[in-house]
Amino acid sequence: MAEEGHEQRRRLVLVAAPFQGHINPLLQLSAVLHSKGFSITIVHTQFNSPDPSNHPGFNFLFLQDGLSDHDIASLDLTAIVLVLNDKCQLPFQECLAKLVKEQETRGDQIACVIYDELSYFSEATAHNLKLPSIIFRTSNANTFLARSVLIEMYVLGRIPLADPLSQKAVPEHPPLRQRDLPISSFGPMKNFFKLLGNARDVRRSSAIVYNTMDCLEGSSLAKLQQHCHVPIFAIGPIHKIVPAPSCSLLEEDTNCMSWLDRQAPSSVIYVSPGSLASMNETDILEMAWGLANSKQPFLWVVRPGSVHGSERAESLPEGFREITGEKGRVVKWAPQREVLAHNAVGGFWSHCGWNSLLESISEGVPMICRPSFGDQKVTARYVSQVWRVGLHLEDELERGEIESVITRLMVDKEGDEMRQRAMDLKAKAELCIRTGGSSYNSINKLVELIKSF
Q1: Whole-angstrom Cα distance, residue 101 to residue 86?
Q2: What's this model's pTM, rounded to 2 decimal places?
Q3: Residue 110 CA: distances (Å) to CA of 40, 320, 377, 428
Q4: What are the tens digits of pLDDT across the range 16-67?
Q5: How confident is the model over 133-175, as pLDDT tens digits?
Q6: Rounded to an integer, what distance in angstroms lies between the CA atom of residue 7 and that of residue 26?
Q7: Segments making up each domain of the chain, as ranges
Q8: InterPro entries under this entry (predicted)?
Q9: Do domains 11-246+433-452 and 256-430 have the same CATH topology?
Q10: Of 44, 82, 163, 210, which is least surrounded by CB within 10 A?
């Protein structure tokens, strides 16, 4: 689309990674930078592409990504990312070179390229075209440090672990145990560490941006900065800075909001295992009866295809809906930010993806942590042991344990104390993005850096 008005804005090119947990924060970052006076072009693969009509203030360019149906059907996320970085290099080179010429014709210029750490193919192209580049990490500082420890362990031959569920401490990174290390469950180990190494490499980029906060990760951010030769900007929680429409890859059931309106304050446990997690039928059976037996109102997201061998409704146990009645609501997908902001929600059963954690803390909602893989395990450990705003539900799911942990969070004094700590973090997060706050200042410094290019 054409820019409104005659005033020229310097253009930023932001390169996304095609996963729910990566697209949203990149679009939120784009909205923040657009509010600071920059024009925005989003570069995205055809795979999992967002709808441009939801973001009329941005231009969108879509790359031929070379993914086969077999690649996508494999659900091997590591392999998909490696293929994308291999196949997108040339299309991006052509796309960006054309965009540079178009901007020059208009007497304008591209200020820099900002790329998701998983779209690291972008850096070489930016460098070849003499454009500065900035890395955007949608995970957090603690996870980055944990990945670095993991790479060192792999080089020393200590990976794979003899016991992936070991309770042994990781001395290089307390409070993690070996079972909390962000090891991938997708594909061969060598591919995973190839991806980790590529994503970690700063190359010739000029800065790194994290969607995190000093009040959560101040010491880890300081440690990272000590060992990094480029500035690090912690600017989160981005979703609270400038209103930006959600880019959901699944259709959101907004009818659940009217159901929440009928519930008592802080009474509902919101259950959402995430956009990539999958369960077996035993898991969903135990979850169902654990929720029912807790007698607590619940809003439960059961994503189509998330239960092995089943689509959705038939995966719920016989009699479950009749027993729970109006006390429970099951949906395919929910508008999560709005749900967590609703005063009826008093707890969040989460996979502990970083975006979900930020959204939960930003609303003062404590958590039940049920990580599925990778970075989520690191975050879950920090939620339960460091920030102490959640309970870690580990090992096999069992209805009695589920009922117990829901009661602890939603009814017992222990849960009230976690809720208060979550509210304290909410207040600190709000201070971060207010005038003079750490994230507010980091955004301004980032803008100054970009304008200096």
Answers
A1: 25
A2: 0.93
A3: 10, 56, 38, 35
A4: 999 989 999 999 999 999 999 999 999 999 999 989 998 999 999 999 988 8
A5: 999 999 999 999 999 999 999 999 999 999 999 999 999 999 9
A6: 25
A7: 11-246+433-452, 256-430
A8: UDP_glucos_trans
A9: yes
A10: 163
